[in-house]
Write the structure tokens for this entry.
Amino acid sequence: NMQYLSYIAGKTEKLELGTGAIIVPWHDPVRVVEKMVLLDHLSDGRAVLGLGRGLARREYAGFGVDMGEARDRFNQAAEIIVRGLEDGFVEADTPYYKQSRVEVRPRPIGSFKNRRYMVCMSPESFGVAAELGLGAMMFSQFPWESMVDACSTYKEDFKSKQGEDAPPFVIADFISIDKDLKKAEEVARDKMTHYLVHVLDHYEMLEKQHF
């Protein structure tokens, strides 16, 4: 997604360029920092960091990463990435990541504070986001009413740990636009429905043995 957004950066002037999301356990943290800093340079400061843990068993298998390690890998690497983007140095000594102190080139051109998020679809994810000072990115996977308590707790935790209000929530969803309202609805019902069917299959969401 960082490589793709570098192309979009060259085609646009004002759009913010958000990764939705970098699946952290598949990546070397120093590479994530390096690529995000470079994207920020190429886009004159329009890069927005979005981190995620991933949900597809077949994707983890394809990258040769044990999905059972996903949570710990994410928590360790996300902290390394957030810190590296701020000071331009990456170092780590965790169970999964060993990195001697290295300076990232090019140097960061600005702080990623208030333009860094992680996908939050579970109470545990909200807790990690608050701890790291990350905004919360969500998909309309559940009725919004069911997310109120988690969102409220996150805002309280963020304020407690960071000493300031949490940034606005980022909602990632699909929309259909057309001058003709009927056509816009037809496209939405067709394309979004097919996409949902593929998502249910790809992520094995209907397989009771997996979930």
About this structure: The longest strand covers residues 47-52. Strands lie at 17-18, 22-23, 47-52, 89-93, 98-103, 116-119, 135-138, 170-171.
